[in-house]
Every structure is written in C-alpha cells, then in structure tokens.
Specification:
The chain has 212 residues and is mainly α. It is built from 10 helices and no strands. Helix 1 crosses helix 10, helix 4 runs antiparallel to helix 5 (82-100) and helix 8 crosses helix 9.
Length: 212
C-alpha cells in the first residue's frame, strides 16, 4: 500500500463507522481487563455470554477473590481454556488488590506484570480504557496488515510497530477497532469479501475475482 493511500484507507473506514467500539461488553476498566484476558483464543460472543453471568455477581477484584476459584470456573466454563484463564484472573485480582488498591494500572509495565496479560491485552486496555494510541495486533490485524500491504511483518510485534509508524496520528486511537472489525466482517481469513470492501481501491491484495 502506498503511503499516500493510507489516509484515504482510514478516512473510508471512519466514514462507515465514525465511533468504533469493542464488541466486548464491559462497564468498568476492570471488567474490560477481565473480558480481554478471557478472550484469548475465544470469540467475543462467547466471552460476553460468560461475563453476563459473571459480572452481576463479581465485577471487582475483591468480589472475584470472594467468589473463589471453583466459583469463578463455574461462571466461565463455556469459554475455551477456562481453567487456566480462571487461575490467571484470580492471581491478577490478588495483585490488583495487594499492589494497586484494586485499580487497574495505567502503565504497560504494570499491566504486563499481571498473570495472563501479554502485550496484546495490555495494548487493548491502554487503548480502549485510557485512550492511548496503541495497536493490539490480533489474528485479524496481523492478516490485514500483511494482506493489504498496510503494515507487512513476520511477527505481531513487527506489524504493530509498522502500523504505529504508518497510520496518520488523526486515526491512530481508533485504528485498532476499525482494523479488527474490518478483518472480522469483510477482510476474512479464508474468503475476503472484496466485492463488499470500501477500501479495496487502496489495498495491495488483488483477488482473482471480486464477485462471491
């Protein structure tokens, strides 16, 4: 993708969705952190289904701890890898209570020190909760960065760094959502819906056909 095409690429995505939002349901920074932690290798739909049961009963670190590990597991057992995720969330809650007065920290270093929280999860929290211009590279964004030519890279970190360099500052805060949603619903893995794609004129990917 040519550098001159990038502003048009994002202006097109912005015109379709001026205020993009995560599809995870949450009402607090802690609920967001918990939902993102639970979403690893799981769909947002499955996480939302579980948190609809969990959050009304336990939506703070202290309440999660009071629920206990068996109680937490029973609420999230429909999510893949729920046992390991429950352990990570429980230990994260212990650290939040002991070291951060029950609050979610705003620094990358502190976030990545929490069990089950890697760079991608920290980037989501920093971006969605605190409005920082970070780029959480999931499978959708990794695919999109390479397929479109927007930010080619062999690793998620390489794609992240390329995106941060190439995306105009005016679009950077919301770019994470635009790219995820575009990858989820249009630029799909096995069969990209190029005939429905508004940014195809700026994309480096050249399909054999633009019809379904």
């Amino acid at each position: 993708m040519n550098k001159s095409d990038i502003p048009h690429f994002f202006a097109t995505l912005q015109a379709v969705n001026p205020q993009p939002q995560t599809e995870l349901n949450y009402t607090s920074v802690f609920e967001l952190l918990a939902a993102v932690l639970l979403s690893a290798q799981a769909t947002d739909i499955s996480v939302n289904k579980a948190t609809r049961r969990l959050f009304p009963k336990a939506n703070t670190p202290q309440k999660i701890l009071q629920l206990g590990l068996p109680g937490l597991e029973s609420h999230i057992k429909t999510i893949g890898l729920f046992r390991s995720k429950a352990r990570h969330l429980m230990e994260t809650c212990r650290i939040l209570v002991a070291q951060h007065a029950g609050q979610v920290p705003r620094s990358r270093e502190a976030l990545e020190a929490l069990p089950g929280v890697g760079r991608k999860t920290a980037n989501v929290v920093l971006n969605v909760a605190f409005g920082e211009p970070t780029m959480a590279v999931d499978t959708h964004i990794f695919r999109l960065g390479n397929r479109t030519g927007l930010a080619p890279g062999k690793t998620p970190l390489a794609v992240e760094q390329a995106l941060l360099k190439r995306i105009p500052p005016a679009y950077l805060v919301d770019a994470h959502h635009w790219l995820i949603l575009h990858g989820r619903y249009v630029c799909q893995a096995r069969k990209p819906l190029c005939w429905q794609c508004g940014v195809m004129p700026y994309c480096s990917f050249k399909p054999k056909t633009v019809q379904p």
